[in-house]
Each structure stands twice: as structure tokens, then as C-alpha cells.
UniProtKB/TrEMBL annotation:
Comp. bias (Basic and acidic residues): 372-382
UniProt domain CzcB-like barrel-sandwich hybrid: residue ranges: 65-211
Pfam families: Beta-barrel_RND_2 (PF25954), BSH_CzcB (PF25973), YknX_C (PF25989)
Source species of the chain: Xanthocytophaga agilis
Name of the featured protein: Efflux RND transporter periplasmic adaptor subunit
CusB-like beta-barrel domain boundaries: 231-302
């Protein structure tokens, strides 16, 4: 029994050694497995797919105007109200301004007086001219007319001619003044500048109204033409160069959710607004049945496409780490990280910009664990076809 402790220690050492060998063998197997890890790689594709993005839009009237009075006066009568359909030139309201009418009468009297004076001066100038011409002809006979009389006749003719010219100038000034007052008097009758519908009426008979320099002053009427509507859409900067500039778009509105409307491309601002870095684009819609209303918000399906082919990779091929955004390219059976910038997402692919070429092999499902220069068993497979059209909000 004295050898029992020694035997136990020896047995324990043998067991420990056996376990260590088994663990080492297991690590070797794991290492070997890691070295022969199979990773799927796919080629970079060069595509020019189209897609549809969904953007908010707003329906605006073809024409809209706030109608303010140009002269001060009392509202004598109103011919329209909210909802009235009017034609261009139709009378909307009549103002009463006794001062303006009095000034018009005074201007008319001044014009008539100036015209009478001018007529008198013109007649006098003609008579003086005839007198001088007769005296000049008679003066050729010796002793018939003295030189002094001839000079006086000539001076009178020139003076009367100058007076006639001044009188004619006074007529022109009086006529201009009268036309100004006449125009102001015409402003007492307020008419519609175009066909449309009155959507606001902010005055009543007897109210004192007049021109105001304040932008917050309410107009007498608000008139709009909604027979054709403008669908305005703010295109984000990232899509600004992907608008075709022709064709149509589809949209829906909350008021008629079951119906899909169509609008035609019309015009674009061709520049970005500083406030939100977007490009305002307009599409026209015929609204003959008045089904759509100005002011409605719309959900617009806007088709976009690049002007040329670009590179696409699977979405899972792009890794976004704390350092950079990259894909893992396999070159000479070694992994290398290529920095990229992401673009449009189409189906299961994402557009990338970087030091890549069509046909380059990249890891299909990359991760931050794949290191630079790493080797693996690379399994090549072809990329799946992508849908030509996709929707994105």
C-alpha cells in the first residue's frame, strides 16, 4: 500500500497527457477546417436598370392670383362670391371714390381748356404767318412797306408760332393727366384677369378698401384656374440627374385612393433649391371633370434611370465598418478590401462606385471578419438576374 500514492499520481499524469493530445488534435482539425473554408464569390455586374421611387407631390392650380384694389374707395357692389365661376374681363366688384371722379372731371376740363387755347394760338400763328408773307411780297415794291413794319410782322409771326407750340405742349400734358385720372377711374371697376373660380371673398359692400404695401393685407378676391393642374415634386439631389425629362408619371391622392392618375412631364427648375437641396419639377394634368382639387397632396411614382451603365453588386457584399464602406474583391486568390460608395438599390443589388471593373470577383456575403490578404476556398457562382423595375419610397 505504500506505493499507492505513487501509482495514483502516475495514472493522473497519463490521463492529463492523453487529454492534452486529444485537445491539440482537435485544434489542428479546426485550423485545417478554417484554412479550407469555402466562400462564395460573384462577379461585379454592369447594368442600367430602371426603378421607380415614391415621392410626395402637391397639386397646384394652373393660375392663381390675389386681387387687390389699385385705388382707394368704398365697395359699391359685389358681383361674385366664393365658388363663382367667372370669365376673363367679367366684373367682380365696383368701387365708389368721389375724389377720383372729381379729379377726373377736373382733368377733363383742363384738357378741353388746353385744346381751346391751342386752337386759338394755332389760328393766330397762321394769321401772323400770312400777314408777314403778304408784307414780304409787297416790300419788293419800293416804298410800299417800311423795313420796320416788315420786322415787326416777322417778330409777331415768330412769337405767335412759339405760343402755338407751347399751347400744343400744354395739350399733351393735359391729355396725359386726363388719361392717368381716367385709368384710375377705370380701376374702380374690378374685373377678372382670366377664366377661373373665386375661392376667396374677403370684403363686403360699404367697406373702405385700397392698395396696401403690407404683404399680410387680405385681397378682395382670390381667383384660380384649375382646369389644368400642376403636380409639383421636389426631386432629391441624389436623383436630380436621373429624371428623363419626358414621359408620364402615375400618382394617387388620399381623396380617391382607389384610382391611379397620370401626369405628363412639363418643366423643371434645372437647379437645386438651397433650402432642401432638391430640384422642383412640374407635371401637368388635365382636370376637365374637376375630380382633383388644387392643394391636394399626391404620392408620385417617379421612374428614374442612369444615363449610362454602372456597376452593381449584391447588397450583402457591401460592408459598412467604422472605418469605411467596402467590398471584398478576390484577386490572385487573395482577399482585398475595396472602398466603395453606395448608390441606388435595385432589387437585391446595390449600385457601387469605386476601384472596380465589370467581372471582378467579390465575396457574395462579406463581413468585417474577412481580412486583407486572406486565402480561402473560393466558390465562383454567377450573379442572379435583377428585375428591370423596382419601387422604393
Amino acid at each position: 500500500m505504500k506505493y499507492l500514492p505513487f501509482i495514483l499520481v502516475l495514472a493522473s499524469a497519463i490521463l492529463t497527457s492523453a487529454c492534452s493530445h486529444e485537445e491539440a488534435d482537435g485544434n489542428k482539425e479546426t485550423s485545417a477546417t478554417a484554412e479550407v473554408q469555402e466562400i462564395t464569390i460573384v462577379p461585379v455586374q454592369q447594368l442600367q436598370p430602371s426603378k421607380q421611387i415614391v415621392l410626395p407631390g402637391e397639386l397646384k392650380p394652373w393660375n392663381k392670383v390675389n386681387i387687390h384694389p389699385k385705388v382707394k374707395g368704398f365697395v359699391k357692389s359685389l358681383a361674385v362670391d366664393r365658388g363663382s365661376v367667372v370669365k376673363k374681363g367679367q366684373v367682380l366688384a365696383i368701387l365708389d371714390a368721389p375724389e377720383s371722379l372729381s379729379e377726373l372731371s377736373q382733368a377733363k376740363a383742363q384738357l378741353q381748356a388746353a385744346e381751346a387755347t391751342a386752337s386759338e394760338q394755332s389760328t393766330r400763328a397762321q394769321a401772323s404767318k400770312l400777314t408777314y408773307q403778304r408784307m414780304l411780297k409787297t416790300s419788293k415794291m419800293e416804298g410800299a412797306v417800311s423795313l420796320n413794319e416788315l420786322d415787326l410782322a416777322k417778330a409777331r409771326m415768330m412769337g405767335d408760332s412759339a405760343s402755338a407750340t407751347v399751347a400744343q405742349g400744354n395739350v399733351q400734358a393735359a391729355r396725359a393727366y386726363y388719361q392717368t385720372k381716367s385709368q384710375l377711374a377705370q380701376y374702380l371697376t374690378i374685373t377678372a384677369p382670366f377664366d377661373g373660380v373665386i375661392i376667396e371673398r374677403n370684403t363686403s359692400p360699404g367697406a373702405l378698401v385700397g392698395p396696401s404695401e403690407s404683404s399680410s393685407a387680405k385681397p378682395l378676391f382670390v381667383l384660380q384656374d384649375s382646369r389644368t393642374l400642376r403636380l409639383t415634386v421636389a426631386i432629391p439631389e441624389v436623383y436630380a440627374n436621373q429624371i428623363s425629362g419626358k414621359g408620364t408619371v402615375n400618382f394617387t391622392v388620399n381623396a380617391v385612393p382607389e384610382k391611379l392618375f397620370t401626369a405628363t412631364y412639363a418643366r423643371s427648375g434645372s437647379s437645386l433649391q438651397e433650402e432642401n437641396r432638391s430640384m422642383m419639377t412640374e407635371f401637368d394634368i388635365k382636370n376637365t371633370n374637376d375630380e382633383l382639387k388644387a392643394g391636394m397632396y399626391a404620392e408620385v411614382r417617379l421612374p428614374i434611370t442612369r444615363s449610362a451603365q454602372t456597376l452593381f453588386v449584391p447588397v450583402k457584399s457591401v460592408v459598412s465598418s467604422s472605418e469605411k464602406v467596402f467590398v471584398v474583391r478576390v484577386k490572385d486568390d487573395k482577399a482585398e478590401r475595396i472602398a466603395v460608395k453606395k448608390g441606388n438599390v435595385v432589387d437585391t443589388l446595390v449600385e457601387v462606385f469605386g476601384n472596380l471593373q465589370p467581372g471582378d470577383w467579390i465575396v457574395k456575403e462579406a463581413s468585417d471578419e474577412i481580412r486583407e490578404g486572406q486565402s480561402a476556398k473560393w466558390h465562383r457562382t454567377e450573379s442572379q438576374p435583377v428585375s428591370t423595375t423596382s419601387y422604393q419610397k
